[in-house]
UniProtKB/TrEMBL annotation:
PROSITE patterns: CYTOCHROME_P450. One of its GO terms (molecular function) is oxidoreductase activity, acting on paired donors, with incorporation or reduction of molecular oxygen. Residues 331-355 are annotated as: Disordered. This is Cytochrome P450-like protein. Keywords: Heme, Iron, Metal-binding, Monooxygenase, Oxidoreductase. Belongs to the cytochrome P450 family. It comes from Streptosporangium roseum (strain ATCC 12428 / DSM 43021 / JCM 3005 / KCTC 9067 / NCIMB 10171 / NRRL 2505 / NI 9100).
């Protein structure tokens, strides 16, 4: 037994960490730090999963062919019949998402979609997005407001409109469906109530996608997916699952990143001045926001075969969770590796928010075959949004001491970010 294995065994008998404890839900950082130090491969009985917390292990296992994508989890079949009936359709639907599937059909869809997410393609819709962002800022109420409701989410909606061909009057309903799926995904284990809500969202979303969104062939992605559907190169269920994943992958993550960036800018006037003046610094700032506050913390996998990691025996069929948020904060941050590597390297202490040029690397978009298709789009839209927000008054109106995070272990999300009335703040960038 090696040192890490011995530490894990000791920890399990003395003080087994609780991933669902309120303190972990409110701030998972201390637990991930403890696991990296004492038990880098941790078995959690409550969620039936292994949790891998060290950067090097996360990077290696993301490429390890002994691990499959999340797929359809075997634990669903062990649920009580009544619970299984509710959870099963949700898990079967999620198993078709590109990020959760290794199936040939999913790989084929992903290959066709890559042309819609090139930098050149995204650049064709960025100016329109920038105009929508300016309009969102102009429409913020002058009285009391909420940054999440009045700024971050409307800007996030503006990202799905040109990519998926969603019209402004349709985004609110899509957002509600997306929230239902993210709430289910971000909760470890099987939450039957959340699964029931997610099932309803899937049914309504399916009808909208097949009957309304795809036939219009508006947006960068809808035309591609509709051609795959009409030429029978992909099944309807795979098309709907892909479209839905792209909705959830844009709405909440973009809103979260914008909110996290704005809160940090509100409390750091010097960073804000540099962000407005230097495009390279703005790029570094965005990467640091994504590193410190990743929208999704988990990259779930399933073991294809037995394997040993740090002396821990993982069996075929076991669920293995790669902790992206933990990997982002370990060791010294990289300034030299390629943009998708996230490898450790020279830099400053990663537990502190400190944008550097060149930007630090992270694994918030995943690593390997399931790297996020929309990473380029997300970065481009965030750059455009922050360029507009940095020079506006809305950031100065944020009440940083009143920010409320959503209680989630597997994701970052903001419940509320209250804003003071416009008349009570000074000029942009000034402290009140």
């Amino acid at each position: 037994m090696d040192i890490d294995s011995a530490r894990c065994s000791h920890a399990a008998t003395e003080a087994d960490p609780d991933l669902l404890a309120p303190r972990t839900v409110s701030d998972s950082g201390p637990l991930w730090r403890s696991l990296r130090s004492d038990c880098p491969v941790h078995w959690d009985a409550a969620t039936g999963s292994w949790y891998v917390s060290r950067r090097a292990d996360v990077l290696a296992l993301a490429l390890d062919r002994r691990l499959a994508a999340r797929g359809y989890p075997s634990w669903v079949e062990s649920l009580p019949p009544a619970d299984r009936e509710v959870v099963q359709p949700v898990e079967r639907f999620l198993a078709r998402w590109l990020v959760f599937s290794d199936e040939p059909a999913s790989r084929r869809v992903r290959r066709h979609l890559q042309t819609a997410f090139t930098r050149a393609a995204i650049d064709t819709v960025t100016d329109a997005f920038r105009l929508r962002t300016r309009q969102v800022i102009a429409d913020v109420p002058l009285g009391t407001a909420d940054f999440v409701r009045n700024v971050a989410r409307p800007i996030a909606r503006a990202t799905v409109e040109p990519i998926l061909g969603i019209r402004p009057d349709e985004t609110s309903e899509l957002e509600a469906w997306s929230d239902a799926l993210i709430d289910y995904l971000a909760t470890p284990g099987a939450d039957v109530a959340l699964a029931r809500t997610a099932t309803s969202a899937i049914e309504r979303c399916t009808e909208f996608i097949l009957d309304v969104a795809l036939p219009r062939e508006e947006g960068l992605v809808s035309a591609v997916l509709n051609r795959l559907l009409t030429t029978r190169q992909a099944e309807p269920d795979d098309i709907v699952a892909t479209f839905t994943q792209l909705i959830t992958g844009a709405l909440e993550p973009v809103a979260t990143a914008i909110a996290a960036a704005a809160v940090r800018l509100r409390t750091a006037p010097i960073m804000r001045q540099r962000l407005c003046a230097e495009s390279r610094y703005r790029e570094a700032f965005i990467e640091e926001v994504l590193r410190m506050d990743p929208p999704f913390h988990f990259a779930p996998r399933t073991a294809r075969q037995g394997m040993s990691v740090h002396g821990r025996q993982i069996h075929a069929g076991d669920r293995v969770v790669l902790l992206l948020s933990s990997a982002n904060r370990e060791g010294r941050a990289d300034r030299t590796a390629g943009p998708d590597s996230g490898d450790a390297g020279p830099g400053e202490a990663p537990e502190a928010f400190s944008p550097t040029v060149p930007a630090r690397r992270h694994v918030s978009f995943g690593h390997g075959a399931h790297y996020c298709l929309g990473a380029t789009a997300t970065r481009t839209f965030l750059d455009a949004a922050l360029a507009e927000l940095g020079s506006s008054q809305v950031v100065d109106r944020i009440e940083p001491d009143m920010v409320v995070l959503k209680p989630m272990v597997g994701a970052t999300g903001y419940e509320r970010i209250p804003m003071a009335p416009a008349a009570s703040v000074q000029a942009p960038g000034a402290d009140r």
